[in-house]
Write a structure and sequence with these properties.
The chain is α+β, with helices and mostly antiparallel strands and 430 residues long. It folds into 2 domains: 194 residues, Cytochrome Bc1 Complex, Chain A, domain 1 (2-Layer Sandwich); 208 residues, Cytochrome Bc1 Complex, Chain A, domain 1, CATH 3.30.830.10. It is built from 16 helices and 13 strands. Strands 10-11-9-12-8-13 form a 6-stranded mixed β-sheet, sandwiched between helices. A 5-stranded mixed β-sheet has the order 1-7-2-6-5, with helices on both faces. The protein has a two-stranded antiparallel sheet with strand order 3-4. Strand 3 and strand 4 form a beta hairpin. The longest helix has 19 residues.
């Protein structure tokens, strides 16, 4: 019968077991206006379960030399951790409590609601994190991946304990789980562990999403736009530039992976050479297609001194336009292929790494081994294939630019960057 997807990577070299219990759903499934609900539910479930309150759960884990952490992404909520193999059954029992019998303590609920705005304040004090937060929100208006996993002051005020508990009960079901185990564990032990994890939860069904697979455009996503996030007394600008692109697993994923490496994925990439090496405008510059289950951003990042922020944005957009039109050279493609194929063994060197990649593939609903087999796909691609993918998926005409800096000092130069209509916002508006 259907049940959780189970991934086992055995490696008895050390008496340790890593585990990832992934619940499909995530921040992209938060109700509109209640952003942060998945994060709140996951963290609250970890703050006391079964017969133990938060302190007792932490003390038990400390006595076992183990850890259990909760993570939230756009596509999932994960309970991950590490245990000595001799204590694995006891630690898994604690995980089973978090999954099937969380307390959702009223006191912890109230405490978490008080703590989360402090995290938001910390992001507002970190220009790089703030640039990413604003870019995610405004890159593709209306796209569920634009919803913040942390929430806003307004959305946090709409989170109630009953809704968090109902979400957990609805999504923590056997058929909605991907369970990964790595280290000192064999198939027999894995079967026993999975049974302990799912014994107290219903079989249920998989989480659904409202994201459209096609990533179809709307008027709000067309044309260049520039958002200047006004932050006082800055000498630098944190810059993000990009647009909605394809999903990880699209037939052109491998070709875009090569294109990404050439343009901004290596020290020899065009962005690094033009922005750092030739002009000294920034310590670094790069780009990536964000890896997610649905269409996500192609994003460029850099940081420049405030006096060159405008020219830096203009140059980056010009480089992107040229790259979309002409693509990489034959020599660049061959070098990037060699780099990517040579780097893959470092990403699958340990049982834990292999397990985590396999879990991600399963959450993204990709064939087993998809990521680990990408070098085979890289090797089969020609420079013309990569250039064609650039022409299909890079859209400099729709690039969104976010610059976190001081408006008084940077506004004039940014207005001349050919980045589209400018909107100035205060850094603490979102």
């Amino acid at each position: 019968m259907p049940g959780p997807v189970v991934i086992v990577e055995s490696s008895p070299d050390t008496p340790l077991v890593w585990f990832d219990i992934t619940i499909r759903g995530g921040a992209s499934s938060d109700p509109l206006g209640v952003e942060g609900l998945h994060r709140h539910a996951g963290l609250l479930a970890r703050r006391g379960a079964g017969s133990r309150n938060r302190s007792q759960l932490d003390e038990t884990l400390d006595s076992l030399g183990a850890m259990i952490d909760v993570g939230v992404s756009r596509d999932s909520v994960s309970i991950s951790g590490l245990s000595l193999s001799r204590h694995l059954d006891a630690v898994i029992d604690l995980c089973a409590d978090v999954l099937g019998d969380p307390r959702f303590s009223p006191d912890e609920h109230a405490r978490l609601l008080r703590e989360t705005p402090q995290v938001l304040d910390e992001i507002r004090d970190d220009d790089s994190a703030l640039a990413t937060r604003w870019f995610d929100w405004l890159c593709s208006p209306g796209h569920p991946y634009g919803r913040t996993s942390l929430g806003t002051e307004q959305s946090l005020g709409r989170i109630d304990r009953a809704s968090a508990a109902a979400l957990w009960k609805r999504e923590v079901v056997a058929n909605n789980l991907v369970i990964g185990l790595a280290g000192d564990v064999d198939e027999s032990a894995a079967h026993r562990i999975v049974q302990r994890l799912v014994d107290r939860i219903p079989r249920g069904g998989r989480a659904t999403t409202l994201v459209e697979e096609t990533g179809e455009e709307t008027d709000a996503r067309r044309g260049r736009r520039l958002i200047l996030v006004d932050t006082p007394d800055r000498t630098q600008a944190q810059i993000r530039i990009g647009h909605l692109a394809l999903r990880y697993g699209h037939p052109d994923t491998a070709a875009l992976g090569i294109a990404e490496a050439v343009f901004g994925g290596m020290f020899s990439s065009r962005l690094m050479q033009e922005i750092r090496v030739k002009r000294g405008w920034s310590y670094g510059a790069g780009c990536a297609l964000r890896r997610s289950r649905m269409p996500h951003w192609f994003e460029i990042w850099t940081a420049a001194a405030i006096d060159v922020a405008g020219p830096c944005v203009k140059l980056t957009l010009d480089l992107l336009a040229d790259y979309a039109e002409k693509g990489p050279t034959d020599e660049e493609v061959e070098f990037a292929k060699s780099y990517l194929i040579g780097a893959m063994p470092f990403h699958v060197a340990t049982a834990r790494q292999r397990m985590q990649l396999a879990v991600r593939d399963a959450v993204f609903e990709l064939p087993a081994g998809y990521t680990s087999r990408l070098p085979e796909a890289f090797a089969q691609l020609s420079p013309d294939d990569v250039r064609a993918a650039c022409a299909r998926h890079l859209r400099p005409q729709d690039a969104v630019t976010v610059a976190v800096t001081t408006a008084e000092s940077a506004q004039a130069a940014l207005a001349d960057a050919n980045a589209g209509p400018m909107t100035i916002v205060d850094h603490d508006e979102y």
